[in-house]
Amino acid sequence: MLNNPESLSFVNVFIVPCRITLNQSKNKDMHTLLGAGGPIANALTKELIHANETIRLVSRKPVATNTPKVSWVKADLLNEAELFAAAEGSKVIYLCAGLVYDIKIWQQQWPVIIKNVINLIKHTGARLIFFDNVYMYGLVNGPMTEDTPYRPCSLKGEVRAKIAEQLMNEAKMGQINVTIARAADFYGADSMNSFFDMMVLDKFAKKEKAQWIGNPDTLHSFTYIEDAAKALFLLGQTPDSGNQIWHLPTAAPMKGKAFIEMAAKIYETKPQYLAINKLMLRLVGLFKKVVAGTVEMYYQYDHDYHFDSTKFEKAFNFKPTPYDDGILKLSKTMYKKQN
């Protein structure tokens, strides 16, 4: 749904403060998506298809496609040999994988995946764009930016911090070219992977009472998934964006109550909701493991969660989709109003 800050001081070396000029030349080499089939990968695939790129989708489960320049290859990210074979000939590789929301699986599998992907990038010479979250920052008092130090206050955050440090250390040594692209909690997914989609939009679409995790009087940021996909595409088309961290374009945060009232108005229903506290999460987690994995992240929902994407917006002259526009579109497409 959802370490040591001094060790990341080198990241500033890679920051490019000036506006970036996009490379307008058509890239004919392959764009490879590791972890295909998920909501981010699906949205990014649409952007790449629209740009007439050659695309390789890589996952353990089949991904249906009838587009001539899109192919699917079966590979397990835990298997280096399969990964090398699947991604041969790649120009840009996007790591969009999502693991089961279980800390033991994260601790066991993420280190192996990252090691394999680093070796893959060295083997192919491709650029790596890693779709990341904000768990490594921990509880932040104020806006989260690309310079926010890593102070995870969760086991999942510790895993993500180590991943980011490992990738950027390889970049610092000149071993790989990596772009870390971070998003806030997202909405507008083609699956029930977003708590805002699942607990607010889908509920209001059915004229049901919404649900909100944590304190609805705190600020929260949500990244519109279409904006995230467009931003990943732009990063893939822009070599100068490499060896940096980027926060993907995200509208300014609002209070939970404001999100609920805005969505209710668009769905023409009453802004009724149930606030879910930590104890309630714990109780549900006794029966649902994925919910149990959310309990340690509760700090994100009872404190302000302010994700700042100013750097990307200025560099790419990109304006995030306003929340009301995103919700309105979803009310006509993915989460249609029901009578």
Tags for this model:
339 residues; alpha/beta; Rossmann fold; UDP-galactose 4-epimerase, domain 1; 2 domains; 7-stranded parallel β-sheet; two-stranded parallel sheet; 11 helices; 16% strand; disordered N terminus; Epimerase_deHydtase; Lipid_A_modif_metabolic_enz
What is the CATH architecture annotation of the largest domain?
Answer: 3-Layer(aba) Sandwich
Count of extended strands: 13
**Secondary-structure element sequence?**
EHEEHEHEHEEHEEEHEEHEHHHH
**Oligomeric status:** single chain
Q: Look at the structure and give the mean pLDDT.
A: 90
Specify Rg, calculated over alpha carbons: 20 Å
Uncertain regions spanning at least 5 consecutive residues: 1-28
Quote the distance from N terminus to C terminus. 29 Å
- Classified in CATH, the superfamily of the largest domain is NAD(P)-binding Rossmann-like Domain
CATH topology of the largest domain: Rossmann fold
Number of helical segments with 4 or more residues? 11
Coarse shape: globular
Structural classification: alpha/beta
The largest pleated sheet is described as: 7 strands, parallel
The residue fraction in helices comes out at 25-40%
- CATH class descriptor of the largest domain: Alpha Beta
Number of domains: 2
The share of residues in extended strands comes to: 15-25%
